[in-house]
Amino acid sequence: MRAAVGLMLSHGAGGMEPALSRPDYEQSALHHSCLLVLLRGVGPSRARVLQRAFEKVRRVNHIRVNDSSGHPRSIWIRFVHDHPVEHNDWGDFQTHRRLLGLVTIGKFDSQIELNELCRQHESLKVRYGSTLYESRAIFFGPDEQPLETIGEVLGPPAAGGRRLQDEFTTPSNFKAQAFFYREQDSCADLESRIGDFASALFWVLESRRLERSREKADKVSLLLAPFEKRDFVGLDMESRNNRKRCVGRVMKNLADLSLQAGLVDDALSLYHNANETLRSVGDSLWVGATEEGLCAASAMLLYPQMRETETLHRNSSLQEAGTSPLKNTPEKWRASDATKKISASDATANNVDSNQPQQRVTSNSSSCSSVSSLVTTATNSSASDTPTTSSSSTSTISAAPIPGHQRNGDLPGNILKAEEISNYYRKAIINYSKYRHAATIETEAALKASRICIEQNRPLDVAMFLQNILYINLSMSEAERVKRFEVITDLYQQIGYQRKAAFFQRLAALKHVQQGSQAPDWNQSYRLMLGSFTGYRLCLDPLEVIENAAGWPALQIDLVQTLITAARRLGHSALATRHMTFLLQTQWDNMSPTEQSEMAVQLQNLSAQCEGSPVPLVLENGTVIPPANLTDLPYCIDLQVKDLPAHLRPQRIKVAKADSGPFLFTPIHFNSVDRRDKKKDKNKIAFQWVQNDLSEVTVRLRNPLPFELPVTDMRLLTNGVVFESLPQTLVLQPHVPTYVALHGTPIETGQLDLQGYSTHTLGVKSNCRLKHMRGRSFPPNYVVDVIPALPRISVKTSLPQTATFSNMNSADIVVTSASLTLYNGESSSCTITITNESATLPLEHLEFSINSNVEQELQQKIFRIDEEAIKAHLPVPPQGTIEIIVDVFAEADFVCPQPPASLHSAAAPGDYGASSLTHYSSVSTSGHASLPSRVGSPHHRRNEPQNSSFRSTISGGPPSLAALTLHPGGGGGVGPSSLGSQYNQHIEAQVRFKYSGGDALTAGYCRQCAVSFNLELLPSVQITSWDVLPAEVASQFYLVLDISNLTAQEMSLNYTDTKNILIEAKESCRVPIPVDRCSLEKVVAARAAEVAENLERELCFRTQLLSFNDALSKLCSIHIAERVKIKWLLTGTDIQGIASLRGIVLSQSMVDLTAVSPLEWAISFQDTLVQPHNEIVCTVGQRSLLSIQLANQSLQPLRNLVLSIKFYQDYLNGMENYNLETRVAISGPNRIAIPLLEKQEQKEHTCSVIFFTPGRFKASIECTSNPQKQSEQPSSLLTRSCPAEAESVGQSVMFSSSYDEQQAHVWKFIPPIEVTVVEQ
Amino acid sequence: MAFCIAVIGKDNAPLYLTTSDMEQELELQYHVNAALDVVEEKCLIGKGAPESKELYLGLLYSTENHKIYGFVTNTRVKFIVVIDSSNVALRENEVRAIFRNLHLLYTDAICNPFYIPGESLTSKKFDRAVQKLMSGTA
Fewer CB within 10 Å: N-end or C-end of chain A? Predict the structure, then answer.
């Protein structure tokens, strides 16, 4: 017996019998209990009506039938589309592999087509005839005529069917039952007919089962697997072991039939018995089959929900809507439910629970209700085949609980436990592995075991079974090998082993395109490779890959490269370019520089066929490939949003006014700081851009590749308002940072969102967004406000431009410059032409201001613009122009700031040959100053004779005329020894324009630009010294000026309306100018102003003495400046100007001469009124009366006046002799004190004069006010402080106090009286 | 003795991977990557009983040419060793010894105060020691 077994195995190893051609990968454990039916479409047509029929047929996968003894059976049907004939040969080994039924569906339009459909049906019957029980044909014919169709609707459907059958006839050799339907028929009865068909199959199966069960043990024949036939040739079949083998195999076959017939309990018992019998004789192959059968039967009872999985899977595959995330959720739910059921089953097995059976009964009752109608119909239809059943039997079926062993709610005792199933499968697989011909059976068993373990939520066992599949030695074709990998992939994905699934997906993909393959399927390879992305932490969105980078870069790079190869072989250039871009974007940091260069070159070559673009790529199967961008090619180091040029920068009109306020408080700064922080958080740009104006963003780029990188069509990426980007083309050198300016124009107003830039490099267009740039601290975007369009202007001037740059602030808004050279006092003008360059916007608002490096007041004198003339020209239409005239006057100080008193003090002592005017000045100064010195100086007493001789020298001729004649000749010697040379003065100024128009003006925006002015002031005329001398009449005085010509040319000087003088270059001359004296009204007004000022200053406790003098001095200065205008002209040129005397400083003595004297003189000599320049003659020894009348013309009383009369002789050589005691005698007092001279009061004094010697004498009559009584000042202050004083009294007191506080004043009778004494 | 030795971080990113045959490095990386599924599953099983958890995970899976063993530390760092299938003389005790030595080398390497956990192991000393361990002379 052992030798026989060895011989059998030896024959098996020979491999003479063909094995199953390929495994049935879709098979599951529960398919052991199904009746196998081939569902095939025949004919050329694949209309939608056939698809609907297919679905209706497939829906009938479960029926309930009553057997001959009245017990209900649960029958399942499995529909397949393809079934190799070789699988039928294994029907004895496992009966579920036997094809039992055949259903064909076809469509015909004519009799010939119908005959062809019948022929195809018959050929299929012949092919599977050895195992086929029953077959059906479903034919769809053409529709009836419209009239007949209407008639048919009224009639019964059966009649309609018959009519179609009457029209067409099947061939004579066609013996199957055919169902005819119209093309538009709803096929309402198709499902019931298929149910009848299934029932027919069941009854045939049942008869086979009963026949098998009735066989006697001693008469059974040996059942064989296809490859076992040769092994048993010549053996003694009657031996004990062979007899047991025959009985065991028959028992196993009967168990298979019982399982298919719905008798699970019987099947379990039979499997166990067969297992024991076959194991005793060492029949390993059939022992494995019994073990597999046990697992299948147990799975039927434990996991009936796996059938639902099958249904769900089919629907999912049909709809092609299944996705990995969606599949995972039901998976978890199903696993959880399975675990719960396993626990419940265990609990039920251990204890009988009364509640559990009720729940089961309820569930099964609902299931019975759902199929009750079908069962009823089936029963009615098959009445001829089964014993008669009554209606009460039908109602019993509806209410009956689970049949058989489950009536008590308990599982059979011999069922396998959940953990035992995997063990039994493992043992079965081990038994199968002993036979090479059973490799397909082994593979299918492993797959079934995997599916069971998936249901049991035991992934490690699944992994073990799947891994063992690879060890099975199968002579498979490449297509079958790929199919195996795909099935393994799917199962791995179900247990969540993404990496394993990806591994096998990659293997399947590589198998498709293996070397030596006759027809490489790159499409499948690509699809599988794409499906394996999840396992390697890849997805099609490059941004997700970058964010979730989790290592394994080498694998990712290799996978993407393989994908690129597949895409290229497919001929899909766009796809290859897209994936290569994806590779560079996601794996740039993980590649070496050499690899980076190689990939870049490859990308360049790929994109030469089809360019890459940043739009999603939709494949034919509906897959969407997201866009990939070369964000880091080139590498962006920095990106800065640039403000507009200064002269085009928008500013707020109102804000500017607010900013000009004089006070800035601290809280404003805090708010400003907070606002700044807030802006920083929002990535808000502080400045604004202007609609329709060119804007700029500066980008610093670096080329990380070792070769030149051309970048074309580089633009800004924006969001928000419409933005028109200008393309930029550049070539980046390797590893060198390059600055690029990207320009664009915002078309709308609002907020512009700058997100990055777009590039076109290496043949790929990329959107490089800031938020996707890693390793840099870029904000996600920049937000810029775009304000409405502002007009644009161009500015030109009539003066030449200058190349020098301005040192003033805000120099960046200067758009043009003008340079001008003027002599001090010269006038000129500049015409500024403003053109509105805007095409559509008028210039509606234009204001200007002038800034310079000199003081505001001086600036206003130098530059003048007529504002009204400008406003009259507004608005300026587009392309229009406006002219602005700026008048420029070279304002300067012509008066030398040297003190005149010191000048005269220095000049007077050594100058005895001066003119009479100079002499008068010396007399005035020395007369006042020499009063104290005369008393203490014996020098003057010794010089008395000289004065007398001097006075007699000038006794004849007009003194002023002589002086004027002498002056030009001695001008050079009279002036100061050295003149301070005046330097050139340089003035920088900016004429700033703020302009606006259109909507921007409404919004409160404007622009600002400036014209830079360079004004050079050359020195022209300078007054080095000045003095005030009394004139011939009392209403005038002489202003004596020393004028220097500081230019290099001859100057003609008009110092009065009628007088002219020429001054050579760098020369100076002395000029006397008669000027009217300042009127008393002005003096009164000045004093009134002084009083008002004093009232204010009382609160500040300031002294008023100096302020009054200052006021009066200013008054006289203004008086002189207003009346004296010195016009100068450079001889031979057109250059001319006016020299102003503004700023001239007058001393107190000068002020007394300038202002009109408050005293009015009336002097008579010998009863004759003395007139100016009258000849007065008297005789020696004769008494002459001298009468003097004083009148106070001022508004205030004069106090402490001293009237003095002195006679002296003037030698006209600078000497005056006052010691005339021996020549003149005065009877009566020559010094009279007047304590008080009220307003408009007159005083008269008369005395007699006797001359002892003949000669020429002069009389000096003067009135002096002395502030010697200063003790009254405190009382005056006290009086002023008294609150009880009335206003008028207070005013009067203040007048007095102010007068007392004044300095000493000397008023003289001008000119001095000249008396000629003659002999009788 | 070993084809490949890999150190995988807690986030399943490779910290160190070395092979004896450079031409097969990519293929071995694929195998190591696929083995992580089984490693994760075995780590998950031991969650319920931490006191009975063993660091050595045993044979993860085998192919025609390779056997892949796993080891996991208390800090969830995984060690993967790929051994030739034809080396039938290699016993399980020897594989355990390899992992024990590898664990010692790894702890020495991460004692470097300048090593940042989670980054690649670039220690030359560690690399040399692993090479010796791989060639069987350790």
Answer: C
